[in-house]
Amino acid sequence: MFVVSVIRFVLRLFLAVMGSHKVTGRENVPAQGPYIVVVNHMSATDAPLLYLCLPRVRLRFFAGEKWEKHFFFGPLLRLVGAVYIDRYNVDRKALREALDALADGSVFGLAPEGTRSRTRQMIPAKEGAAYLASRAGVPILPVAVVNTDLWAANVKRLRRTAFECHFGEPFMLPDLGHRAKGEDLAAYTHLIMARIAILLPARYHGYYKDSPALAALLRGEDPWPFCYEPAGPPVAVERPLVNPATPSSPPHPAHPRPAGDS
């Protein structure tokens, strides 16, 4: 599409002016969808950087509802694949649209944290990515963006930024043998964030710096047996991005293994 080509050209020009960008792990990117892209989120430049580093695929992604009514960005974002979502309340319409896009073979991108980190480090994630992946049954591609948190300060100092985009290996959520809910979605979310964190320098680990799943990955071990353990310190309970009517699972006496494991 001509308009999309123009948008990509403008974004490429913008990033070229702002700095350089380095990409690693491009060989890990699946040739086609459906799959879900998950990425850390620290800056307004995260999305343009990721958009340009991905191959030209049929891409859909969540965008905050605040942009939907914007006279310029509203229709522009929708044109390039945005699905507008209420970040603070259950938005079944947006989740259904995302699942339909994946069922149609699209690639769907989102930041599990749900908002930009103001600490320049990872913050506790919401369960939207885990919900989508568990319902759609598609691979997850973890991505880490680095130095996007520096660009605003660098612009003020007339400095260029060395952006980085790192693609990890795609993975599937473990098969539990039942529909994921409650603590299962929390464990899946822990796994997703550990897979992103392993791609980032330690200074970005933030909330997940003491994650047992991340520690397992750093040791070269399977992180899943540790994902039902706390990912970080307790946080205030927020309104969910998934169906609140879904009952929570009873406490797990042991760390569940994927179905079929002994």
Question: Helices, strands, pairings?
Answer:
Elements: H1 2-18, E1 19-24, E2 35-39, H2 46-53, E3 59-64, H3 73-79, E4 82-85, H4 92-103, E5 107-110, H5 128-136, E6 140-146, H6 151-156, E7 161-167, H7 183-197, H8 212-218
Parallel strand pairs: 1-7, 2-5, 2-6, 3-4, 3-5
Antiparallel strand pairs: 6-7
Helix pairs in contact: 1-2, 4-5, 5-7
Describe the 3D structure:
With 262 residues, the chain is α/β, with parallel strands linked by helices. It has one domain. 31% of the residues lie in helices and 15% in strands. The chain has eight helices and seven strands. A seven-stranded mixed sheet has the order 1-7-6-2-5-3-4, sandwiched between helices. The chain starts with a helix and ends in a 44-residue tail after the last helix.
How many distinct beta strands?
7
Number of helical runs?
Answer: 8
User: How many domains would you count in the coordinates?
Assistant: 1
Main sheet?
A: 7 strands, mixed
What is the percent of helical residues? 25-40%
Class per helix and strand makeup:
alpha/beta
Overall pLDDT confidence:
87
Name the poorly predicted regions: 242-262
Strand content: 5-15%
* Shape, per Cα inertia axes: globular
- Using the CA coordinates, give the radius of gyration: 18 Å
Q: In which order are the strands of the major sheet placed? A: 1-7-6-2-5-3-4
- The helix/strand series, from N terminus to C terminus, equals HEEHEHEHEHEHEHH
- In whole angstroms, the N-to-C terminal distance is 50 Å
